[in-house]
Amino acid sequence: MDPLDILIDLDQLLPYYKPIIRADKQLVSGYEVIAYFLDENNKEQRLDWLFDDTSIPDEFRLEVNQYIHQKAIEKKIQDHFPGHLTLYYDAKLFVRDNGETFIDLLHDYQEKGLKLNNIILEMKDTCLPNNTDQLSHIIKYLKTLGVKISIELANPNGSLNQLAVLHPSFIKVDTSFLKDDLLPHLYKDVYFGVSMLSRKIGASLLFKGIRSYKQLNFAWQSGGEYYQGNFLTYPQRDFIKEDACKNELTEYFREFVTYEQQKAKAQFELLDSVYGIIHRLLSQTKQTHDDTWLLKLAEGCEDFVFRIYICNSVGLQVSANVEKDAQGSWTLIEEGMHKNWSWRPYFFENIMRMNIEKKGILSDLYTDIERSELIRTYAYPLSQERYIFFDIPYSYLIEKEGLL
């Protein structure tokens, strides 16, 4: 589509409204404004590409932006909609304009009753200028007016420094990378850095692109406060009922909670079962100066373990690996000796927990590098300085409800 055709016929610009649903009450809290254009064939063409196309003159993009924002604000005032509107700008264009077009528009409609604390200015991290000083200055002014800032992330952990400087009220992330054949909870660490930063700066996480049950589950597990996507509701030319998604979303949340409760119960049951077996075996197995005693220990728990090893309190492995081979026999693999595992996430936190609680700990689900399969590890304190680790294979976990 030729951008000039749009400029000549601005009246054919159509704002669509993409609902944003807040998790706490499962109600529509606002809308993202999306621009469409009704072409000569009476077909509606989405114009996302236009606002980030730097080959189009600034003046033209500013005019189109202002027109579509104006239409949306007028509808908000006319319909007495109390929620928020999210209005998009290319950040570099915004800086070159010094935010004047946007700020003038807000002031014009503020006089007509627009509450500026219901306006969200959204930008993409891929469009942020290298030097954010001027943008930060404009944003600080907008915040004094009550305008909130949303930053959409293309790269989950690529713009954290800029986010820390700009202090947005919303951080928007995409769930579309998550396919239906993937387990959502395995990918929650993708946005771990973003989630931690959002809590520190007081920003809410908004997950967009939710097109499936699993993607919604991922957003829920990842601490999403706001949701968008066709799985819940489509963009429309009108505002929808505030509770349009409430019944379905309430039911989904109930299912998520039930599953998490079942999973927690299964993990506690596994902990009790493993503890009972290992505690009994340890009391019956005499520890020797070499690692041969681990072979006897392994035979007693071969139904749910494929590898055993011992580390000290600083993460240094002080035993060989005792591993089950393809034929089901246990062997000592000396090359495991003296490996350092202190780099593993939560290693020292778990060591401290075992020292204080005097009991074993079951790890999260993770992928074992050597076997390339999902496993869990049960760690148990032998003393204040030695800790024994039991790796539990996927074949065992898949047979138990709630362990995957």
Automatic annotation (TrEMBL):
Residue ranges of domain EAL in the record: 1-249
Pfam families xrefs: EAL, YkuI_C
Full protein name: EAL domain-containing protein
UniProt source species: Oceanobacillus jeddahense
